[in-house]
Fold:
Amino acid sequence: MTTLIKGGNGFVPSVPLRIAVRGRGVDAMALLLTGQGLVRGDADVVFHGQTAYPGGAVRLTRDQAGTEWLEVALPAVEEEVARVLVVGSAEHGALRDATGLSVEAYAPDGTSVAHYEVTDAAGETAMVLAELYRRAGGWKFRAVGQGWASGLEGLATDHGVHVAGAPAPAAPAAAPPAPGPAAPAFAPPPPAPGPAAPVPGFALPPAAPAAPAAPVAFAPPGAVPVPAPAPAPVPQQYPAGPGYGPPQPGHGVQAPAPVASLTPSQSDAWTYGPVFPPYTETGRDNDVITVDGLPPGPVVVQLEIPDAGYTGLWVLDRLNKKKDNLVNSTEDRYFGRVLATVPASGTLRLRLEAEGQWRMEVSPLASARRLTEEEADFRGPDVLLHTGGVADLAIRYRGDDNLIVHVYELAGHEDPATLPRRKNVVNEIGKRRETVPLTEGPLVVEFEMADGPWRARLKRVQPHSGPANPWQGQGPSPAERRGWFPRR
Structure:
């Protein structure tokens, strides 16, 4: 557990997190902000009048003990969201009266990854307790503790939310950026001609024009990104999350696009293996990469090389000899995500043969993308997770070389430091359409070789025989509270 003081920050794993907001008589809220520090639309505010963000990336619940829980599936938060604020507000009186006011983040395996105890609350009635923000391709947690004497209305206004009853905005609010079920608006519908009484709630100002994307460039050879102390977001050189989008300016590799909207069961139902902050390193040409202090077990290694030439990647054993070959490609502008296993020593050593600049990221298995029924575009080898019931996996491969796909069935496999024996389900050459039957999750689906573009989606997904949500039965349940603002 990382215990933070006010203003302190630290990396958290890019996995679904559960954030407990504790304090007698305190209501929780989440605001999803852009790089300008503003919400984009009414869907960007999660509170007891609207308990879920479209797609389920952020949800608010309350357990029987009175603890408020924000469930934030970081892999499902789209790229446009730079910060997620964790807000607490007093139901009655001031926050100084809230006994035990604190915020704590938990990983899927129940490990506490960040904790902040608020000790200086005063007469304010609303406070940004903490925030999650993007940094160096991952996510950091910062202990904020900034209060608003003007209450929840003042806090909301400062982040682009218009309180109903104030002058109406000149333009309609921007539509939510991600697909999902319709959510209740924070303001009443446009009034009929004639005066109308204000309705308690939020309305949103016109969306600010998006800032132009900054060119993408590699860090200097051998440099490891060092987070700046300020929490302001920076343009992402390689956005978090797998998948592919259009080429970024000034760079030949197609960078990952935001993860598609997931249902809560798809984005949260993964509890296998340890979690840890992602490790990132950049360099040039052939090198040996050493990552110390990792928990033993399977990890995802993402490698990006924008230049043409041969790419080879091996795991080195304790005698410094090449052991497992992870990458063997002559493809220009290489991009791929592969599986590696950290030994019992906790030190992963990799031998890289490459030409030109490169970037490598080592992240926990839990950070891999979930398979869904929405077709997604990919290119190169990748690691995907299946958490649902029995399903069919439809694959469309448009490359000219080998397509090799393996499945690891984790049901009944209790050793998180290893993977079970893999099962080969596809081994073909050239353009293909394949449909592969999948057993019930949890499964790891490894595209070991895929030198070319491909698409994948689930079909005929059956309900899972066990709990669809890993938090099910652990206390938090959806709060059945009404009203746009917290209780008075």
Remarks:
- Residues 389 and 440 are 4 Å apart (CA to CA).
- The chain has two domains: 3-190+198-203, 264-459.
